[in-house]
Amino acid sequence: MRIPYLKEANGKKVLSVHDKPFLVLAGEVHNSDSSSIEYMESAWEKAISLGMNSLLLPVTWENIEPEEGNFDFDLVDQLIEQARKYNKKIVFLWFGAWKNAQCYYAPAWVKKDVTRFKRAEVKKGHNFTNLEDFYGMPYTTLSYLCEETKKSDARAYKELMKHIKDFDGEENTVIMVQVENEPGLQGAARENSDHADEIFKSEVPQEFVAFMKSNSDSMAEDVKKAVNSGANEGNWTEVFGEVAEEVFSAYHVATYINSVASEGKKEYALPLIANCWLDKGQKPGLYPSGGPVSRMMEVWKFCAPEIDVIAPDIYVPNFMDVCDDYIKLNNPLFIPETVTHAYAGPRQLYVVGHYHALGYAPFGFEGMGEEFSAIDSYLFGVETADPLFEVPQDIQEYHWITKTLDDLSPLLLTKYGTTDLQAVSCERKDDDIMLFGEYGIKVMTESQMISRRDGVCLALKIAEDEFYLIANGCIIHPFSLSKEKPYSGILSLEEGSYEDGVWKAYRRLNGDEVAIMRYEKPTLLRMKLYSYN
Q: For the DUF5597 domain, which residue ranges apply (predicted)?
């Protein structure tokens, strides 16, 4: 049996499948689509039209354990067989106790027994509330302090992983698993039951205090301040001050999820992901408090060592700022959910070229190419001041970008963790220069000579003077960095494709096409430079 795993390469983690590096160029289906094999047929076809090599698919607790102790994996098997038919990989999403901070996908026998499977008390004495700061949405969720829930959730997840190993351990159609979905508590920073109050007033485990005190450098400023000024021992308030309630929630949510993950890894040690609903600078409870947001990443690193990747779901305009937040503490970037508007393709190029990401997956990709409604735009954080955020992604261009990245991935992944792989984006137009030893490349994404405003360029150095470039909506200016030979020129420039490890030139460019290297549509180039004095 061969198990997909994460390996270190030049300080970056790379997913290995059958001992070969694999770049996850995926899409996540709408939550309910994977409950129907018939419905999934159109999703696989759409994935093909978008060039994707993988899909992120929910597997739900209610479906695999409809009665306690009786497991049904027929749907899981059918999804795996379907993926094989379409030559795709799967990242399964375990919807157990949490989905978007609620208990939507828990089985009926869990939902109905509120004595054995305790609900979180947002308000003391109440198993239900309406979220006043979230459109009055009705809200209930399972308690992160309930041992019975944790035990049952972990048992179900363990059985799932055992079955995947038995059914897929040789073929490795399933390459990663996300444990729960956007976990945490809405409506309050922590649970407010009598039981939660009692634990909150008790001594914080000393090992955890010591870890937080010695790892404060990477923390968000308010968390760092609270940790450094807090007591070295005592209850949660004494040790963590103003952030005590969120740290308390993060400690217990992460510990819960680590217990679930640990049981699964004992059976089948696939790489595991925990994803989060972004905090967006809000107070805990407006976003799920205790989830693996970047400000709580240190807590999660201590409490959930079985989780390999902490992954942000990004629906906000400041996409790259979020990416920056989730690469600290050697955390590899994986984006399991993001929007499908006009920046979806360019952002995929950028996260591979700049962040050396494990993977990227627009959510609800089945609708890519369709217009956003006003409600969709609002929920996804669309910035209406930028018209491109309201424009659907062109699906032919997305297919070209995804397939080109997939074809080039054997080369790209060998350069992870090095400066031989870089990228420039219009969303950071001031960072427009890439430096590669003897040469540099300046990329202009704003010019009267460019009609589009979603410019991006990925550059892959394959020799001291030779590069592959994926260019879109930009003008490229190579230049020399040598003091002895300060001038540079194009020795050769070809447009083409990279298929089955072989460069296929469509045409050799020269003259006007070299004088101004301007690209109004996604283009793959092979460029060789020379320098002189």
A: 405-514
